[in-house]
Amino acid sequence: MRIHKEGYGILLKLLFLLVVANIILFSLLPSGHLFILIFLVFSIVLYLFTVWFFRVPARSIEPDTNLIFSPADGRIVAIEEVEEREYFNDRRLQVSVFMSPLNVHVNYFPVKGLVQFYRYHAGDYMVAWHPKASSKNERTTVVIKVNEHSSLLVRQIAGAVARRIVCYAKTGKEGRQGEELGFIKFGSRVDLLLPPDVNLKVKPGDKVYGKTSVIATFN
After folding, report:
1. Residues sharing a CB contact under 8 Å with residue 101, sequence separation 6 or more, in sequence order
2. Is 135 a catalytic residue?
3. Co-location of 148 and 204 in the same domain
4. Regarding predicted confidence, which is higher, 130 or 93?
5. 49 and 117 in a common domain
6. Which pLDDT value is given to residue 111?
7. Do 136 and 51 sit in the same domain of this protein?
8. One of 134, 151, 188, 213 is an active-site residue; which one?
9. Among the four residues 24, 38, 68, 141, which has the most C-beta atoms within 10 Å?
Protein backbone atom coordinates (compact mmCIF):
# COMPACT_ATOMS: atom_id res chain seq x y z
CA MET A 1 0.00 0.00 0.00
CA ARG A 2 1.15 3.54 -0.78
CA ILE A 3 -0.12 7.07 -0.19
CA HIS A 4 -1.76 8.78 -3.17
CA LYS A 5 -0.03 11.87 -4.52
CA GLU A 6 -3.22 13.90 -4.01
CA GLY A 7 -2.73 13.51 -0.27
CA TYR A 8 0.83 14.80 0.03
CA GLY A 9 -0.06 18.50 0.39
CA ILE A 10 -3.00 17.90 2.71
CA LEU A 11 -0.97 15.60 4.97
CA LEU A 12 1.89 18.10 5.27
CA LYS A 13 -0.46 20.99 6.08
CA LEU A 14 -2.43 18.91 8.57
CA LEU A 15 0.76 17.72 10.30
CA PHE A 16 1.99 21.31 10.63
CA LEU A 17 -1.34 22.55 12.04
CA LEU A 18 -1.62 19.71 14.54
CA VAL A 19 1.97 20.13 15.76
CA VAL A 20 1.49 23.90 16.19
CA ALA A 21 -1.86 23.40 17.96
CA ASN A 22 -0.35 20.88 20.37
CA ILE A 23 2.64 23.16 21.11
CA ILE A 24 0.33 26.11 21.82
CA LEU A 25 -1.91 24.00 24.04
CA PHE A 26 1.10 22.64 25.93
CA SER A 27 2.38 26.18 26.54
CA LEU A 28 -1.00 27.47 27.81
CA LEU A 29 -2.02 24.64 30.11
CA PRO A 30 -0.19 23.19 33.14
CA SER A 31 2.01 20.18 32.45
CA GLY A 32 0.06 16.95 32.76
CA HIS A 33 -3.33 18.58 32.15
CA LEU A 34 -5.89 16.00 30.95
CA PHE A 35 -6.96 18.10 27.98
CA ILE A 36 -3.39 18.06 26.62
CA LEU A 37 -3.47 14.26 26.51
CA ILE A 38 -6.97 14.18 25.01
CA PHE A 39 -6.03 16.61 22.23
CA LEU A 40 -2.79 14.74 21.52
CA VAL A 41 -4.68 11.46 21.13
CA PHE A 42 -7.27 13.22 18.94
CA SER A 43 -4.48 14.68 16.76
CA ILE A 44 -2.85 11.28 16.26
CA VAL A 45 -6.15 9.58 15.40
CA LEU A 46 -7.13 12.35 12.97
CA TYR A 47 -3.77 12.26 11.22
CA LEU A 48 -3.72 8.48 10.93
CA PHE A 49 -7.27 8.50 9.53
CA THR A 50 -6.27 11.08 6.91
CA VAL A 51 -3.23 9.01 5.95
CA TRP A 52 -5.49 5.96 5.67
CA PHE A 53 -8.01 7.90 3.55
CA PHE A 54 -5.35 8.58 0.90
CA ARG A 55 -4.23 4.96 0.77
CA VAL A 56 -3.76 3.20 -2.56
CA PRO A 57 -4.01 -0.60 -2.18
CA ALA A 58 -1.79 -2.80 -4.31
CA ARG A 59 -4.07 -4.54 -6.81
CA SER A 60 -3.23 -6.46 -9.93
CA ILE A 61 -5.49 -6.83 -12.94
CA GLU A 62 -5.71 -9.17 -15.90
CA PRO A 63 -6.93 -6.93 -18.76
CA ASP A 64 -9.94 -8.31 -20.58
CA THR A 65 -11.67 -6.41 -23.39
CA ASN A 66 -14.98 -8.14 -22.65
CA LEU A 67 -15.11 -7.08 -18.97
CA ILE A 68 -16.20 -3.78 -17.42
CA PHE A 69 -14.52 -3.40 -14.03
CA SER A 70 -15.74 -1.19 -11.23
CA PRO A 71 -14.23 2.31 -11.44
CA ALA A 72 -14.34 2.72 -7.66
CA ASP A 73 -14.61 1.07 -4.27
CA GLY A 74 -18.00 1.34 -2.61
CA ARG A 75 -21.54 0.05 -2.71
CA ILE A 76 -23.96 -0.19 -5.64
CA VAL A 77 -26.75 2.26 -4.79
CA ALA A 78 -28.63 2.38 -8.10
CA ILE A 79 -29.09 0.41 -11.31
CA GLU A 80 -31.57 1.96 -13.73
CA GLU A 81 -32.17 2.87 -17.34
CA VAL A 82 -31.86 6.62 -17.90
CA GLU A 83 -31.93 9.06 -20.77
CA GLU A 84 -28.34 10.32 -21.10
CA ARG A 85 -28.51 13.92 -22.35
CA GLU A 86 -24.94 15.20 -22.19
CA TYR A 87 -23.20 13.11 -24.85
CA PHE A 88 -25.03 10.05 -26.18
CA ASN A 89 -28.59 11.42 -26.21
CA ASP A 90 -30.02 7.94 -25.91
CA ARG A 91 -31.02 5.36 -23.30
CA ARG A 92 -28.21 4.05 -21.12
CA LEU A 93 -27.95 1.67 -18.19
CA GLN A 94 -26.71 3.63 -15.18
CA VAL A 95 -24.81 1.84 -12.41
CA SER A 96 -23.98 4.09 -9.44
CA VAL A 97 -21.24 3.33 -6.90
CA PHE A 98 -21.38 5.29 -3.63
CA MET A 99 -18.02 5.87 -1.95
CA SER A 100 -18.17 6.58 1.80
CA PRO A 101 -15.29 8.40 3.58
CA LEU A 102 -14.06 4.95 4.65
CA ASN A 103 -13.58 3.65 1.10
CA VAL A 104 -10.50 3.89 -1.09
CA HIS A 105 -11.08 7.04 -3.18
CA VAL A 106 -8.99 6.33 -6.25
CA ASN A 107 -11.01 6.04 -9.47
CA TYR A 108 -9.96 3.68 -12.26
CA PHE A 109 -10.55 3.21 -15.98
CA PRO A 110 -13.14 0.39 -16.12
CA VAL A 111 -12.13 -0.53 -19.67
CA LYS A 112 -9.37 0.10 -22.14
CA GLY A 113 -10.24 2.70 -24.73
CA LEU A 114 -9.85 6.11 -26.28
CA VAL A 115 -11.08 9.11 -24.29
CA GLN A 116 -13.51 10.74 -26.73
CA PHE A 117 -14.91 13.40 -24.43
CA TYR A 118 -14.10 15.10 -21.14
CA ARG A 119 -15.91 17.91 -19.36
CA TYR A 120 -15.86 19.39 -15.85
CA HIS A 121 -19.07 20.83 -14.38
CA ALA A 122 -19.19 23.13 -11.36
CA GLY A 123 -22.25 22.43 -9.23
CA ASP A 124 -23.90 21.84 -5.88
CA TYR A 125 -22.90 19.49 -3.06
CA MET A 126 -26.01 17.45 -2.33
CA VAL A 127 -25.54 14.07 -0.69
CA ALA A 128 -24.03 11.79 -3.31
CA TRP A 129 -26.86 9.25 -3.28
CA HIS A 130 -29.49 11.90 -4.11
CA PRO A 131 -31.13 11.15 -7.50
CA LYS A 132 -30.37 14.66 -8.78
CA ALA A 133 -26.68 14.52 -7.80
CA SER A 134 -25.79 13.16 -11.25
CA SER A 135 -26.96 16.35 -12.93
CA LYS A 136 -26.75 19.01 -10.19
CA ASN A 137 -23.55 18.33 -8.22
CA GLU A 138 -19.98 19.19 -9.11
CA ARG A 139 -18.91 16.43 -11.49
CA THR A 140 -16.78 15.33 -14.40
CA THR A 141 -17.86 13.40 -17.48
CA VAL A 142 -15.51 11.05 -19.32
CA VAL A 143 -16.59 9.10 -22.41
CA ILE A 144 -14.43 6.11 -23.38
CA LYS A 145 -14.65 4.48 -26.80
CA VAL A 146 -13.98 0.77 -26.38
CA ASN A 147 -14.37 -0.18 -30.05
CA GLU A 148 -16.34 0.84 -33.13
CA HIS A 149 -19.55 -0.45 -31.59
CA SER A 150 -19.28 0.34 -27.88
CA SER A 151 -18.62 3.41 -25.73
CA LEU A 152 -19.34 4.08 -22.09
CA LEU A 153 -19.44 7.10 -19.82
CA VAL A 154 -17.83 7.50 -16.39
CA ARG A 155 -19.10 10.34 -14.22
CA GLN A 156 -17.29 11.40 -11.03
CA ILE A 157 -19.71 13.17 -8.68
CA ALA A 158 -18.84 15.20 -5.59
CA GLY A 159 -20.94 14.62 -2.47
CA ALA A 160 -21.91 16.68 0.57
CA VAL A 161 -18.41 16.34 2.05
CA ALA A 162 -16.29 16.08 -1.09
CA ARG A 163 -14.97 19.42 -2.28
CA ARG A 164 -12.52 18.50 -5.00
CA ILE A 165 -12.62 16.16 -7.95
CA VAL A 166 -9.38 15.30 -9.73
CA CYS A 167 -9.55 13.72 -13.18
CA TYR A 168 -6.52 12.60 -15.21
CA ALA A 169 -8.40 11.65 -18.39
CA LYS A 170 -7.56 13.73 -21.45
CA THR A 171 -9.50 13.84 -24.70
CA GLY A 172 -7.68 11.97 -27.45
CA LYS A 173 -5.56 9.90 -25.04
CA GLU A 174 -5.99 6.18 -24.53
CA GLY A 175 -6.71 4.88 -21.06
CA ARG A 176 -5.59 1.43 -19.95
CA GLN A 177 -8.00 -0.82 -18.08
CA GLY A 178 -7.25 -0.42 -14.36
CA GLU A 179 -5.19 2.75 -14.84
CA GLU A 180 -5.94 5.65 -12.47
CA LEU A 181 -8.67 7.87 -13.89
CA GLY A 182 -8.82 10.28 -10.96
CA PHE A 183 -9.48 10.88 -7.29
CA ILE A 184 -12.38 12.38 -5.31
CA LYS A 185 -11.63 13.77 -1.86
CA PHE A 186 -13.80 12.85 1.13
CA GLY A 187 -16.95 11.00 0.09
CA SER A 188 -18.55 10.84 -3.33
CA ARG A 189 -20.09 8.75 -6.08
CA VAL A 190 -19.16 7.38 -9.51
CA ASP A 191 -21.75 6.61 -12.19
CA LEU A 192 -21.23 4.28 -15.12
CA LEU A 193 -23.47 4.85 -18.14
CA LEU A 194 -23.36 1.59 -20.10
CA PRO A 195 -24.87 0.29 -23.33
CA PRO A 196 -28.28 -1.16 -22.38
CA ASP A 197 -27.46 -4.62 -23.75
CA VAL A 198 -24.54 -5.39 -21.40
CA ASN A 199 -24.73 -8.39 -19.11
CA LEU A 200 -24.87 -7.09 -15.54
CA LYS A 201 -22.92 -8.91 -12.84
CA VAL A 202 -23.98 -6.80 -9.83
CA LYS A 203 -27.17 -5.76 -8.05
CA PRO A 204 -28.11 -2.89 -5.71
CA GLY A 205 -26.47 -3.26 -2.31
CA ASP A 206 -23.41 -5.14 -3.56
CA LYS A 207 -19.98 -4.07 -2.36
CA VAL A 208 -17.53 -3.53 -5.20
CA TYR A 209 -13.81 -2.82 -5.45
CA GLY A 210 -12.11 -0.65 -8.04
CA LYS A 211 -10.38 -2.52 -10.91
CA THR A 212 -11.23 -5.81 -9.18
CA SER A 213 -15.02 -6.29 -9.22
CA VAL A 214 -16.70 -6.98 -12.56
CA ILE A 215 -19.70 -4.69 -13.08
CA ALA A 216 -20.79 -6.13 -16.45
CA THR A 217 -19.64 -7.86 -19.59
CA PHE A 218 -20.20 -6.67 -23.15
CA ASN A 219 -22.81 -8.59 -25.11
Report:
1. 53, 161, 186, 187
2. no
3. yes
4. 93
5. no
6. 96
7. no
8. 188
9. 68
